[in-house]
Amino acid sequence: MEYKITSKCEMDTIELAQNFESEKFPNMIICLNGELGSGKTLFAKGIADAIGIKEPITSPSFPIIKEYDGELPFYHMDVYRLDGNVDGIGIEEYFTKGGVVVIEWADTIKEILPENRLDIKFQIIDENRRLLTIVPHGKEYEEVCEAVL
Ligand SMILES: Nc1ncnc2c1ncn2[C@@H]1O[C@H](COP(=O)(O)OP(=O)(O)OP(=O)(O)O)[C@@H](O)[C@H]1O
Ligand SMILES: [Mg+2]
Q: Which of 43, 45, 50, 115 lies most in the core, judged by the most C-beta atoms within 10 Å?
């Protein structure tokens, strides 16, 4: 199953993220892919916002994982700089800590991603529009998509 959604402005992307957050459950894994400036961090901000996190969300390039306290813990990762070198970092630990996990450039660490997860690919159409391709893997994520999309 695959959903295609066109975001027409920043607010569309933020609202979409907030809608996903409302269906959140512990250990929800959201994997974001897509070119530079396509909206991955903005989507992460929407999630954080709706979890009740007041701190500003900045792109976690170093360290690559940032933790925030909200209704659930929020783990925001940007694994771009790892270049696929995941050994010894302990990224997998975050998949079962009971929080919500958002991973930018998730495809670069595909081999350690859980089978059950939500994949979202961002493509730039023009200055303000983004095409989002959303693919749920596993029953619980399919249910989330049915509820939100
Ligand atoms: N519909 C839209 N959805 C998301 N972002 C948009 C949209 N329209 C314009 N933008 C702009 O695109 C940029 C997206 O930046 P963002 O940091 O979220 O991208 P990113 O995918 O995380 O990039 P990077 O790969 O560098 O981490 C912002 O400047 C935002 O204002
Ligand atoms: Mg980013």
A: 43
